[in-house]
């Protein structure tokens, strides 16, 4: 049964304005009722260091390794045969200086093979020197 004839059928539309009004009221309500919790910070007192600067500098063994496979010890060129020989050279340099418990500083070229650096580390271990560090240069870029 059609009561109306020849009328165009209109699509129903949702009116968005009341929907937006309701959302704005909810948003305002949430903004007002929200509590911002303030996290408590730990109150700590850090220790201070009152020690004097060390007066004596530890004895340093500077071992250099270049890209060609050459070794040096405190600026003197070494002929590397094996790890034991390098360990003996390190012990001799410490005895000649009359010091003990040196710091081994490894100055390795960036193109040196890793095995050459491992040889120096193993020689320091065989010689009984457990303080080993690597020298590096800063790039100068900031």
* Average pLDDT for all residues: 82
Query: In order across it, which strands form the biggest sheet?
Result: 3-2-1-4-5
Which percent band covers the strand fraction? 5-15%
Compute the separation of the termini in Å.
85 Å
Task: Characterize the main sheet.
Answer: 5 strands, mixed
Spans of 5+ residues with little confidence (pLDDT < 50)?
Answer: none
- Element-level helix/strand string: HEEEHEHE
Integer-rounded radius of gyration: 38 Å
Continuous helix count: 3
Q: What is the helical fraction, as a range of percent?
A: 25-40%
Shape: elongated
Q: What structural class do the secondary elements suggest? A: alpha/beta
What is the number of strand segments? 5
Mind explaining what this structure looks like?
With 142 residues, the protein is α/β, with parallel strands linked by helices. It is built from 3 helices and 5 strands, in the order H-E-E-E-H-E-H-E. The protein has helices at residues 16-33, 83-97, 114-127; strands at 60-65, 71-73, 76-78, 103-108, 132-134. A 5-stranded mixed sheet has the order 3-2-1-4-5, with helices on one face. Helix 3 links the parallel strand 4 (103-108) and strand 5 (132-134). Helix 2 (83-97) crosses helix 3 (114-127). The longest helix is centred in the first third of the chain and has 18 residues, at 16-33. The chain is elongated, with a radius of gyration of 38 Å. The mean pLDDT is 82.
């Amino acid at each position: 049964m059609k009561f109306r004839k020849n009328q165009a059928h209109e699509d129903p539309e949702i009116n968005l304005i009341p929907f937006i009004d309701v959302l704005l009221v909810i948003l305002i309500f949430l903004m007002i009722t929200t509590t911002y919790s303030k996290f408590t910070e730990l109150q700590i007192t850090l220790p201070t260091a009152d020690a004097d600067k060390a007066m004596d500098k530890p004895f340093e063994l500077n071992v250099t390794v270049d890209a060609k496979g050459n070794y040096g010890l405190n600026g003197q060129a070494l002929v590397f045969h094996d790890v034991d020989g390098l360990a003996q050279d390190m012990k001799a340099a410490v005895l000649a200086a009359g010091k003990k418990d040196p710091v081994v500083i490894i100055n390795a070229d960036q193109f040196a093979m890793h095995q050459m650096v491992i040889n120096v580390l193993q020689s320091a271990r065989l010689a009984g020197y457990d303080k080993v560090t690597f020298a590096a240069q800063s790039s100068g870029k900031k």
